[in-house]
Batch of 3 targets.
Target 1
Amino acid sequence: MVTITRYIYSPRMELSEYMGIVGGASGLWFGLNILAFYDIGQSLLVVRAIVCLALLMGCIWHIVDISVIYFRYETTVSVVLEKAQVVELPSFTICTNVSYAIDVDYLRHRYPNDTALANITDNNENKWLFKPYLYNLTLEEQLMKGTIGANRFFNTCGVLKPRAVLSSAEYYIECAWIAPVVESINAEFKCFTMFSQNVSQLADNDRYRVDHDVMFRDNAFPLTWFAMNVKYLQDLDIYMHDRREPFVGPIGGQLTAMNLDYQPYIRSFLSYKVIDIELLPAPYLTQCLDYHQLRFRSHNHRVSQCRAKYNRNHFAGWQLDMYYSDEYYGKLNYTDISLMYNRTLDKQIAADCAQRIGRRPDCHSMHYTMNKISNQRRVNYSNDSAAIFYANFLMPTDTVTRYVHSPRMELSEYMGIIGGVSGLWFGLNILAFYDIGQYLVKNTMIIINPCQFNAVLGTVALVGRVAGTENVAFMGGN
C-alpha cells in the first residue's frame, strides 16, 4: 500500500504564542514596579479606565486566538534518522503457487474411487489438474489437509537469537521458537508467515528483538534465513509487513512483494529499510486508534474481517483472492469468480466496511522496503526434487526513519501563555482595580453607616500619610 507523504511547513512560533510569552515577561516587570506607576498615574483615572478597557479587549482577542490554535489539536512531525541498536523482527510471508503445494496423496485418499484422479501423474506439467479436486474441499480442509504444511515447505529456518534467549550458547535458533508459522490460502497461492505477533503476545517483545548495533557490529551475516524445498516452489513471492498485523495481501494493501528466482540460484541475499510511524489519538487531527484494545491487530486486519463477514453473510462463501487462515470459522467454499471482478460489488462492500469501521489509522505502524543484494548461482542445476533454495535476510544497515507526531501545543504551553496574557492585563490595570475597589467600598460604607464611613476614611488617610513618610525615609529622604 502506498501512503501519501505530505510535507506541510508551519511557523515555528505563532504571533499569539510570541505575544503570550512577551506578555508574561512584561506582566512580571509591571508587577514589580507597580508602586512607581501608581505615583505617576494617580491623577489619570480617566486615561487608566480607557486603557483598561482597550487592554481587556486585546486580552480577550489574544486568549481566543491562542485557544483556537490549541483546540485545533494539530500536530507537528519530527523526523528522526537513526541506526538500529536493537533490530525489531518484522513478519515475512512467503507465497507459492497453490498447485505446487497440493498434497496429492491426501486428495487420492479423500477421493479413493476417482479413477481420473488416480491416473494423473504428479509432475510439474500436471499440477494444475489437481486444482478442481482441491476446490471441492472446504477452505478449512484445503488449508489444513489438502495442501502441505510448513514442516514440508521449509527444509530449515533460522533466526539470530533474540533477547529472550541470550543465555543460549547458540547463535541461531529455530524460527518456530519465536512464533508458530501461520498458514493462509486463496485460490492461487499458499502462504506461510513467520514471526507473526498476535494480540496475546504484545507484552512479550523480547522474543522479537535482537541486540545488534549495526553501526559498529559486523553486518555481513543473516538476521534470518529460510531454506525452502524447490519441488514446492512456483511463482515464489516474499512479503514484509509489521509483525503486529496479519498477512492479508492485496485486500489490506500489502503489495510490496519481491519475486525470488529460485531456479538458477541456490541463494538470494536481501536486506530491507524500515519506516516507523507514530500518530496521536483523538482529539488530535491524526485521529489514530489502538486496534489492539478492540481485539484486532490492525486497521487492515479489521477491514479483512469485515469483508470476510460480508461475503459470508451475503454469498455464503469466500472471495477467491482473499487469504483464508485458521482464525476464520465456518465450512466455507469459494464464491463465484465473477464476484471477484465485480467492481460495483467491491464498492458496496467497501462502503459498508467504511461505515462500520471508519478510517482511523493505526497509532503505530511500520513499513518496509526490500532490496536484493546478490544471488548465488547453482552449480549444474537440475530438476532434483531434493534441491533447496535459501533466502537470507541481512541486517538493516540503512538508517531507520521515524516519523513521530507530537502536539503542536502542549497543555502546559497553552496554560502558560494564557497565564502570561492574563498576568500582563492584570499588571497593567492594577491601579484601575484599586480605584474601583476604593469607589465601591466608599459607596457601600455610605449606604450602610455614614458615621462609621467617616471614621474609616480618617483611619485610611492616617495610614496613607504614615506609609508615605516611611517610603520617603526608605528612599533616603529627611
Note: The two ends are 86 Å apart (CA to CA).
Target 2
Amino acid sequence: MFIIGHRGAAGLAPENTILGIKTAVENRADAIEFDVRVTADKKLVLCHDDTFLRIAGKSDRVRDLSLNQIRKIETNSGEPIPTLEEAIKAAGKTPLVIEGKSDDWARPLANILKTHKTESPRVISYNHRELFLFSELMPGIDTFAIENHHPIEAMLLAKNLRFTGVSLAAWLYNPIVYHLSKKYKLELITSPLNPRWRIRLFHFLYPRAMITTDFPDRVINHNLRRRRKRK
C-alpha cells in the first residue's frame, strides 16, 4: 500500500506547512502531497486556495502579492506560509507529489526542480495544458492529470499526452476504469480517503492505486501491525 500524505498531513497538522510535511515524514508516509501557487514575483509558495481568506482571514490573492508580503501574513494556525524550496528541504528523502494550482506554474516549478533535487517527484494538476508544458520542460518527472468527473476521457488524454498517470476522485473508480488504467499502462492516485475501512477496502479493490489521506498515521500503523503478525 503506497500512502501519500495530503497537504502534508492535513488531519494531523496545519495544511501545506513545514510542520505538516515533517508530521508526514514522522508518520512514514511514502510520499507527501502539497499545493503550489505563483506569487507576483514568480516565486512558488504552498497554498491551496487562490486567496489567503481561509487560512489567514485575508482576501488578497496569492498572485497579487510578493514573497516578502506573503512572509508577513499571520495565518490562523500560526505557521508561516512556506516556499517550495523550504518544503523540499523539510521533506528530505521522502518523495513529493506537487500540485500546480495556478495558471503559470510550469516554468517556475521546472526551474526550481532543476536546482533543488528531490527524491522521485510527481507533479499533478487540473490544468492539463500547463501540465503538458511542464512535461515538455522536465520529461524525466512523472506527471498526472487530475480529474473529478470524466475518468475515461482523462485517461485517454493522459495516454495521448504521455503523462505517467491520472489522479482520480475516489468515487470515479470502478472495474472498467481500473482495467483501462492497466491497458493504457497508467499509474493511479486517489483523492483523499480517511476512514480506515475505506482505505483498506479501496486498496483491496484497486491495489495499484496510490492512496492519498489526511491521516497517514492510521494507515502506516495498520501496515506495521500486519507485518508484526506475519513475523
Note: The longest helix spans residues 216-230.
Target 3
Amino acid sequence: MDFLHRTLDLKAGAFEVFAAFKDRPHAFFLDSGMNSPAGRFSFIGFSPSSIIEGHLLQDLERLRAAFDKHKVPVRDFPHPLPAGMVGYIRYDLGFFFGFYDTVICIDHAAGAVHVTSTGPPQRLQEILRVLENIGPPASPIRPKGEIGGPLQLTSNFDKDGYAAIVRRALEHIRAGDIYQINLSREVRAVCCGVDPWTVYGALRRISPSDHSAYFNDGKNHILSSSPEQFVVVNGRRVHVKPMKGTRPRGQTPPEDARFRRQLETSAKEIAELLMVTDLERNDLGRVCDYGSVRVSEMRAIEQYATVFQATSTVEGTLHRGRDGFDVLKACFPSGSVTGCPKIAAMTIIECLETAGRGLYTGALGYMSFTGDMDFNVLIRTLIVAPDGITFNVGGGIVADSDPLMEYEETVLKAQAMEAALKLDCHPRMF
C-alpha cells in the first residue's frame, strides 16, 4: 500500500484547521492541543472509505479481518496515525469504526501539518488547497454568549437517590461481593438549535485535555474533554493509565496547594487507585509476556483546569502474535470505571444504575494501519443527539465512602460540561 505524504507549515491552531472540515461526513478531531509531551499530535479526518458497526465480543474477528485488509508494515512515518481505523466502543461493547485512508496530523511541537493518504491523489490535493487557504483567525473564536437564565438539567438520580445507590453498593462491599465500584448518574438537557461545534469550543477552553475529541458518527456528536488515557500500543509496547481520585482546583494558590495535598494523602483514594492498578496489571498479563508487566508510575497527581486527578501507569510487552484487538478484548472496559472484581462490579452497576451508560465510560480513539493505537476513556463527555444532550458523572466507591460526599464529587465533575452548555444553548426542563 503506497502512501502519499505532504508537509506544510502550521499557520493556524488545530481548532481552526478542523473548523474547515468539521461539516464533512463522519468528521473526527482527536484533539491533543495542550502542548505537553503526551499531547504532541492532533489528528483530523473525514469521509471514511467504509464503516463497521458491531459488538466487541461477537464481531471482533469480523472487525479484525476488515482491518487486516488495510494493514501496512511499520514505516518511519512522522506521526503514529498515517491512516487507520477511528471510532469508539460503547460501555455495552457496541462499536462504531470508520476506516480513514487520509489523515491530517497537526504536530504541535514542530509547528507542522502532515497530510498522509492511501486514497486517490485528488483527495490529498483537495485537502492541501483547503489548508493553504487557512490563516490565523482575525480574532479568537468565541462562544455565542451567555444564556438568559440559569441552566436547568434533569438527572436520573437527585442527591438522595444517588446516596441511596451508594449505600446499596456499600452493602455489597461489606458482604465481600466487591472491593470497589464505580457508580454514575446521567444528566440530560433538551436544547433548541444547539451547535455542537460551539459547545465543543467552549468545553476545550474551559477544560482542556490531551485526550479530547470531537466525533460525528452520523447520528450523534461526541464532545469529549476526557483527562483519562485508556490504552496505548506502540509496536509491542503497551500501557494503560487508570485514573482514580479527584479534588477541585483552588481559587487561590494556597487553596490550590491544600487541595492537591489532600489528594496526595487521602487514604481512601490511595486505596482506590491501588486496587484498580492491580486489576489493570492482571488484565495486561493476559496478553503480555510473562514478567514484562510492571507499574512504571504508581501514583502521579495531574492538574487540569477544574480538578486534580491521581493516575498510575502500567506497562508491558505484547506476546508475539497478539495485537491491539487482543488488548481491547482483555482490558475493556477500563477497571477505573467499573470496579474490582470487574465482572462482579459490572453486574452490580447494571442493577443499581437506572439508565444504560451508552458511550459513557467506553473508549474513543484510533488504531493505525501500522497496528499502533491510542484510546481515551469516555468521561467528561457530552453526547449531542437529535433528542437532546446527555452526559454522565460518577466516582469510585470503597468501604469508607460517604454517600453524600460521593454525590458532591459528581457535582464537581459536572461543572465544566455545564459551563460549556451555558455558553451555547438555553435548555428547558423535560
Note: The longest helix spans residues 403-422.
